[in-house]
Amino acid sequence: MKKKGITYLLICMVAVLWGLIFYRVFAKGGESDEILTRKSSAKPSYFKLVDHGLDRVPLNLDYDDPFSVAQAGSSSSVNNDLLTVRESQSMAPPIKPVVNWPTVVYAGAIYNPTTKKVIAILNINGKEVMVGQGEQVDGIRFIRQQGDSIRIEHQGLNKYLHLK
């Protein structure tokens, strides 16, 4: 019985508290149309702003240009090294062979928990094929599975396929 008495007392206190809150919000709030604003005190600025227009410090700009190719007093061996580097950079990059990928769609995978082997179900040019990891079918080799995608190889180039 003692616990019920404390519970009833707490319920009454909560009801009174909510009654006061509603009274202050609804009864007192409608009387004045003034907008209450908080007067802010002047705060010191976080950064000290400096006016650089008033600076009278001369700048020393007579240093050598670090990006110029021919500098005064440099040895010819350095210039020769620069020329050989530039000649090697001017060579065209090797042309990559064009690989005609067949139409490959990744349809799913089967995981065998006893042998711990993954078998991918691929659709290659309209033909459904089951390929084990490391196996090759129609020139396409299944390298590995990563989440919902697989990595395949065809004529030396790799490609990732996502589950459709």
Tell me about this structure.
The protein has a domain at 104-162: SH3 type barrels. The chain is flat. It has 164 residues and is of the alpha+beta class. It starts with a helix and ends with a strand. Helix content is 25%, strand content 27%. The mean pLDDT is 79.
Keywords:
alpha+beta, SH3 type barrels, 4-stranded antiparallel sheet, 3-stranded antiparallel sheet, 2 helices, Type IV pilus biogenesis
Q: What's the SSE blueprint?
A:
Blueprint (H helix, E strand, L loop, with lengths): L1 H26 L48 H15 L13 E9 L4 E8 L2 E6 L3 E2 L2 E7 L2 E6 L2 E6 L2
Antiparallel strand pairs: 1-2, 2-3, 4-5, 5-6, 6-7
A few lines on this structure:
This is Type IV pilus biogenesis. The protein is an alpha+beta fold.
Poorly predicted regions: none
The main sheet comes to: 4 strands, antiparallel
> Can you tell me the CATH class of one domain?
Mainly Beta
Rounded to the nearest angstrom, the radius of gyration is 39 Å
Strand residue content: 25-35%
Distance linking N and C termini? 66 Å
Coarse structural class = alpha+beta
CATH fold-level label of one domain: SH3 type barrels
Kindly report the average pLDDT value: 79
- Number of extended strands: 7
Helical coverage, percent range: 25-40%
The side-by-side strand order for the widest beta sheet comes to: 4-5-6-7
By CATH, the architecture of one domain is named Roll
Protein name: Type IV pilus biogenesis
